[in-house]
Write a structure and sequence with these properties.
Rossmann fold, globular, binds guanosine-5'-triphosphate, binds magnesium ion
Length: about 375
């Protein structure tokens, strides 16, 4: 197992508690990707250092630890610029990753279908392209600086051309898959569509399995789901489609949102969203906010949403009562459930089926008379 060290900045705009939560999440990402976190380094700064992300003294401290403890990986909680990456790599002499890098890596290891694989590969190349300068430093270091400038640059140009070519091939491949997918979606006709959305690891797939009685993969790791699963559910003779989608995360790499756009079409096409939230999580409100931000980026207008607070089995009764009070005053469709322990699933189903019926009967008024006569 590779040994990793985490580095985060305690920005003046955030509390120490928040910094800790961010690094907890980064550690969970590291765990998901199969490495072990051995230490965290944090520094209080207004903004990141433009050349080395953290200050020079802190970087030396990290360097000492890395050498002493034979650390394989140093992971930064924010994205590094190409020049920061180059400077840090030069000093630490080990693998340097940033948050996007790590997320892309996890996505790559989780992708199963051709669709997901193509989308991740595209995102990876797009991430790599502006960072190609990094390869030049490798070359420089290996072969010595003077006289290598010409061939080095040619090498970058060649690499850049190859990668650009790969990107356009992948886009072409993706657009073919997208066409098939959109044909599939059109074939589904006018059925009411419901999509489960939410932060990663909140219990979307677990809930999908309960409502649709299917067997979608769910586990206590981040991004268990990459491919959208769609199931037909029938309630009181009314059919609707339920889809389980990829989880969101704070600072989801821009390239991933771009290339996962078609997977996220299920969300865009949905009539109703079930926004699943892990209510037991210390920063659940921040998770909700980052989901809402991503949804705003994705959708032109807000959708009918059921706010589904999950994992209530992990919350003390008194605290739960207070949370219910707090959310019930907000004029939203809220339900409090535990998917894993099947608590209050009836409430969610009632709320959902009521909304599904409403939409169904506006779309098929004829069926209503049929059913009621
Ligand atoms: N205690 C508790 N755990 C739950 C509950 N619902 C789901 N879990 C657990 O939470 C973990 C994540 O569940 P998933 O259903 O995979 O979550 P997801 O939202 O689909 O996650 P991604 O696909 O990774 O985005 C699993 O270990 C579930 O068993 C719940 O109500 N209570
Ligand atoms: Mg899932």
């Amino acid at each position: 197992m590779e040994k990793a060290v985490l580095v985060g900045i305690n920005y003046s705009s955030q509390t120490i508690g928040q910094t800790k939560e961010f690094l907890d999440e980064l550690e969970f990402l590291v765990h998901t990707s199969g490495a072990k976190t051995t230490k965290r380094f944090t520094q209080s700064l207004k903004v990141a250092h433009s050349t080395t992300f953290v200050g020079k003294g802190k970087l030396s401290e990290i360097e000492e630890f890395v050498k002493d403890k034979e650390v394989d990986l140093v992971i930064f909680d924010d994205d590094l610029s190409p020049s920061q990456l180059r400077n840090i790599e030069k000093q630490l002499c080990c693998k340097i990753l940033d948050r996007s890098n790590l997320i892309l890596d996890i996505f790559a290891s989780r992708a199963r279908t051709a669709h997901a694989k193509t989308q991740v590969e595209l995102a990876q190349y797009q991430y790599l392209l502006p960072r190609l300068t990094r390869m030049w430093t490798h070359l420089e270091r290996q072969k010595g600086g003077i006289g290598m400038r010409g061939p080095g640059e040619t090498q970058i140009e060649t690499d850049r051309r190859i990668i650009n070519q790969k990107i356009s091939n992948l886009k072409l491949k993706l657009s073919k898959i997208d066409k098939q997918k959109s044909a599939q979606r059109n074939n589904r006709g006018n059925m009411v569509k419901v999509a489960l959305v939410g932060y990663t690891n909140v219990g979307k797939s677990t809930l999908m399995n309960i409502i649709s009685k299917s067997k979608v993969f769910a586990e206590n790791k981040l991004f268990a789901t990459l491919d959208t699963t769609v199931r037909k559910v029938v309630v009181d003779q009314i059919p609707f489609l339920l889809s389980d989608t990829v989880g969101f995360i704070r600072k989801l790499p821009h390239q991933l949102i771009e290339s996962f756009k078609s997977t996220l079409d299920e969300v865009r096409d949905a009539d109703i969203l079930i926004h699943v939230v892990d209510l037991s999580h210390a920063v659940y409100q921040e998770q909700m906010n980052s989901v809402n931000d991503t949804l705003n980026e994705l959708l032109n207008s807000p959708k009918l949403t059921i706010l589904c607070f999950n994992k209530i089995d992990l919350i003390k009764e008194k605290e739960l009562i207070a949370l219910k009070e707090f959310w019930k005053n907000k004029d939203l469709n809220v339900v409090f459930i535990s998917a894993a322990n099947k608590l209050n699933i009836g409430n969610l189903k009632n709320e959902l089926f009521k909304q599904v019926k409403d939409i169904h009967f506006t779309r098929f008024p004829y069926n209503k008379t049929q059913i009621y006569y």
